[in-house]
Amino acid sequence: MKKIKVVSIFGTRPEAIKMAPLVKELEKHSDVIESKVLITAQHREMLDQVLDIFEIKPDYDLNLMKHGQTITDITSGVLKGVEEVLGEYRPDIVLVHGDTTTTFSAALAAFYQKVAVGHVEAGLRTGNIYSPYPEEMNRMLTGRLASWHYAPTELNRKNLLAENVSDDNIIVTGNTVIDALYYVTEKEYEFESEELRKIDFENERVILLTCHRRENWGEPMENIFTAVRIIAEKYPDSKIIFPMHKNPLVRDTARRIMGESPNIVLTEPLEYQPFAKLMSRSYLILTDSGGIQEEAPGLGKPVIVLRTETERPEAVEAGTVKVAGTDTDTIVEMVSALMDSKKEYEAMSKANNPYGDGRASQRIVENIIKTFR
Ligand code: UD1
Ligand code: UDP
Question: Among 247, 252, 305, 312, which residue has the most ligand 1 atoms within 8 Å of its CB, making it the best to mutate?
Fold first, then answer.
């Protein structure tokens, strides 16, 4: 019998982390599935780090990343590159993930080629098309282009139903990020980097910071980094670790505002395994990342979100995540509450996992086999 031809397409670090377990699961079914991986390389080093950890060798690499790339650069490069591959390979289904410009453009290229699209991590919404920008719109448009919607949670399913997506085409799976997190945390791991080995986790309260979002570029990011500098001064027993996103815009702002603080460590992006370990050993996490809001509840780590809105209200409901926005005083206040009050801290640090049981990839692959056989 002919095998089901599946092409998984991704391009940035978070897509790679969340697609890796799915690629692994597709490979397990090589008797019925021919699985190919196409990377756009919207990111380069940050993507390659993830491919290494999960030992994924892409079949196609568009190698698109340029410094200072615009959304239009990415969109047009992905459209053209994906068109060429799909025109030649003709898969039964293309799998895309989440909300990046790779995601939307690859789905559009597949639609132009009349190839079916399966959307992994479908149905998250803030309801504000400028926050996160351009991700909210990317995710909505990908939803319009997709035939199958792999929704992490019931709430995501409801969001899709409200946009008239047929219930028959929505599969609630959990989030593959939990599959990925289990994959890296199952293995024993000691920090390799001297900087991380030096941290005294017993006596220093480690605050992990990540920040990169487009809508935070400029003043909001300056406000965030100023808040972090104030927190570092106010709590000399804290150590703030910022694995800096590779974007020069983010790095320059970080160095300018936080570069001189003795208890702020600015490092290169960490590989997923040390990053996961650092999350699990941190006192609290400050972030504008989407994925980290999903990982932290499972680890029972309080998260202050450096955005005005979140498309992950399940984590807020679980009690682990609070949305601070980007105002300096508010961030300092919310962090201080967690640093000063044991009660406040304990209320936010209960492990609770609204994002699944680590079997999301399995459910997606089962559904693909059922649909195409
Ligand atoms: C992108 C996604 C965002 C996602 C984020 C995850 C879009 C529009 N944005 O944002 O949704 O949350 O990735 O991190 O799809 N760079 C490097 N090396 C790398 C990666 C990036 O040097 O490995 C630098 C390059 O100069 C590049 C810049 O970062 O031009 C920005 O990268 P880009 O993918 O355009 O935007 P992100 O902010 O990373
Ligand atoms: N991450 C990582 N190394 C780092 C910072 C983050 O491996 O130095 C992981 C993190 O655990 C999460 C993902 O990268 O799974 C989040 O990526 P990012 O913040 O770039 O994107 P977003 O989640 O905002 O889309």
Answer: 247
- pLDDT higher than 90, residue 370: yes
Q: Kindly calculate the radius of gyration of the chain based on its CA atoms and give it in whole angstroms.
A: 20
d(CA 101, CA 170): 22
Q: Indicate the pLDDT class of residue 352, thresholds 50, 70 and 90.
A: confident
Residue 23 near residue 8 (C-beta atoms within 8 A): yes
Ligand 2 pocket, 291 CB below 6 A?
yes
**H/E element holding 242?**
strand 238-243
Q: What is the pLDDT of residue 351?
A: 78
Residues in the ligand 1 pocket, defined by CB under 6 Å:
12-14, 42-47, 65, 67-69, 71, 100-101, 134-135, 212, 214, 246-248
Q: Angle, to 10 degrees, between the axis of helix 176-185 and the axis of helix 291-299?
A: 60
Q: How far apart are CA 328 and CA 227, in angstroms?
A: 5
Q: In sequence order, what are the residues at sequence separation of 6 or more whose Cβ sits closer than 8 angstroms to the Cβ of residue 92?
A: 4, 5, 6, 115, 116, 372
User: At which residue do the structure tokens 């989440």 appear?
Assistant: 98
The residue type found at 128 is: N
Question: Is the distance from CB of 246 to CB of 43 less than 8 angstroms?
Answer: yes
Which residues form the catalytic set?
99, 121, 135, 212, 214, 245
pLDDT score at 350: 85
